[in-house]
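Morning!

This is the sequence you dropped in the shared folder:
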Amino acid sequence: MMTHDSPARTARPARAFYLLALVPSIAILAVGVIMPLIWQPEMPETLPTHWGTNGPDAFGSFASAFIIPLAIMLAVIIILTIVMRFAGKDSSAQRIGIVTTTTLASLGTAITLTTGFNARGAVDPTKIDLPDAAIATGVVIGLLLGVVLAALLPTPKYSLATAHPDVLAPRTQLGEHETGVWLARQFSKSNLIAGVTAVVGLIVLAVVSKAYFALAIAALLSLGLLAMFLWDIRVDSSGLTVRSSIGLPKKYVPLAEIESAQVISVSPLTDFGGWGWRTDLNGTLGVVLRKGEALEVSMSDNRKFVVTVDDAAGAAGLLNTLVERSR
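The structure's back. Tokens below.
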């Protein structure tokens, strides 16, 4: 018999997501406004609002330098939170949303705090600097805080699946006492090449310009490449496990929650808006590494998970056979 979460049980994870995605971000942005307000009497009337390769190249009022940018950032964070709440049915997608909102808030505040601090006592606004290291620091702090907050998000309890795979769905022939394991490693060649090129460029930039903070950015980018574009996929009697090469992100679907598996064709931009760990507007979670063949797993509570992989029919067949046997 299929069970459903009560409204109260459904509401608790939703409240936790809003709390973790919005409250810390708003608090961080508030610091980015309050401190410049305290410093405002020491600042010139004209302030830089944009920096080019040779320093400030656009100027405006206090509001255009501090209030408006953070207001726009707050609007983006609120919209992103709402989208991730209703489109991100899977808790892992919502955790990525929490990391993203926290990082955006930290980045925006790092820029305004650094600008405000350097503007104190300045006479010539063209001399007010925004060190790249301040931006990098803001991003790193936001990422670390976001990861901690995301870990606090409770994992919802899903119903057990009772449906059987469609009779036309692929199957793998197994003996009565035989089990099976299906393994694959998938990567996005084009994205890895582009990413490695960017990492090498950052390292060269750091050495040539002695901007050694760029090495930290290169290290983070390297981790991001391994996390998003190199994956291990496993199907066995416990279900489906999809894990990035560094261990996280990870998606585990217990066999008891799987209704069926099938082979579909995926277009990264059209279906998911890009590559990597993605979610579409219908709440389908995906590991999208290339165009073409993909494994789609339908789960209880109207959830779906997609991963682009070679021999998707083999993975789907084994999953359907194991699901059928377990019912």
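Headline: Helices lie at 7-39, 62-87, 91-119, 132-151, 189-209, 213-229, 268-272, 312-326.

More detail when I'm at my desk.
O.
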